[in-house]
Amino acid sequence: MTAVDISDPVLHEMRERIVSAHATGMPLRLRGAGTKDFYGEALDGEILETGGYAGIVAYEPSELVITARCGTRLSEIEAALDANGQFLAFEPPAFGADPTIGGVIAAGLSGPRRASAGAARDFVLGASLLTAAGDLLHFGGQVMKNVAGFDVSRLLCGSLGILGLITQASLKVLPKPRAEVTLQFDCDAQSALARFNGWRPQPLPISATSWHAGVAHVRLSGSPSAVRSARESLGGSVLDDHDAATLWRDRRDQRLPLFAEGGSSLWRLSVPATAPLEPAGADLLEWSGALRWRRCGVAAGNEIRRQTRELGGTATLWRGNGTGPMFDALDPASLDLHRRLKREFDPRAIFNRGRMVADL
Fold it and tell me: Quick one: which H or E segment has residue 182?
């Protein structure tokens, strides 16, 4: 951990607001593009816009690392990477808009490739954090070998901004696959789950799976020979490249009607991939069955949480009119750790108060 000098005028202005809020105890709500305003327990405090602190700081394609300021739009980063045949392998959801990279890291969400490539935090090499006291701290580095000990930079990924303002992040990027094919199978959810579980231990170049509305899809990514061999082995029908790109973009950005329906609650169930489909059920399967989406009536919320716990997973009230918190309650040990970290970085709880845990 090292302190970094603050000289940029935009960063300086944000620091002044943070220091003033810390002195008075006034809560601040950190906001990039607002694409994930729905995500979290509460939106509390005066808005502190972070989009003005933007720009790619460093990008060396041969090193497979990109460093950008928090307000940099995801589209700008993706365009720079695409020009060099590279991409963010965790496929961060954009929700049909254009989030900032600071919001991407703070939310820590991953897209369809998560089960094969890893989670968002697996790609965070370093980050800078502006604390409530006005200190700008840098954690990690720009290469994997610099990450050692207690990795705060990855801890910040998924923290929902409750520890401070993530001002900059260095991310590992990967070359785009040389070949990619999506296969389609007509089947019910139970058959799809059985297929996914049967494929998972095999040496197949599977980069994403999905089942929805009676159709299963599997994306194969890698060398042309590996993709061709897997395609011949698995069977199914081949999806047109354009349709395949649209399908996985819709999965990544949650543009299916399932995510927009009103009048009921949408649950995000994270369970072991081998967990039985019932009793919780699923309207959409992803990540080889480890991620399941379920629409149900408001009154079924407690039962969904109970069933998911029995399967060894967690349930998140993603969208809708459900009652109770968005996230499952933390166990006492985890809650104590969250409180200790919050006191260390933000003792007066000015950052995104209550966004992750109601009393933090």
Answer: strand 179-186
Neighbours of 39 (CB within 10 A): 20
With CA atoms as reference, report the closest residue to 103 among 211, 30, 42, 162: 30
Alpha-carbon distance of 69 to 66, in angstroms, equals: 10
Instruction: Report residue 274 as tokens.
Output: 């081998």
Instruction: Look at the chain and report how many structural domains it folds into.
Output: 2
Whole-model pTM? 0.93
Looking at the structure, do residues 194 and 286 belong to the same domain, yes or no?
yes
pLDDT digit string (tens) for 97-124?
999 999 999 999 999 999 999 999 999 9
Query: Which residues are registered as beta bridge partners of 339?
Result: none
42, 95, 99, 257, 266 from 254: Cα distances, Å: 21, 6, 14, 9, 12
Please enumerate in sequence order all residues whose Cβ is within 8 A of that of 31, keeping only pairs 6 or more positions apart, or say none: 37, 47, 48, 49, 50
Residues 162 and 242 in one domain: no
CATH number at residue 171: 3.30.465.10
CA 49 to chain CA mean position, Å? 21
Tokens of 251: 């999965």
Q: Encoding tokens for residue 160? A: 């929902």
Residue 356 in any domain: the answer is no
Q: Which domain holds residue 307?
A: 178-320
Other Cβ atoms closer than 10 A to 275: 18
User: Which tens digit of pLDDT belongs to each residue from 209-240?
Assistant: 999 999 999 999 999 999 999 999 999 999 99
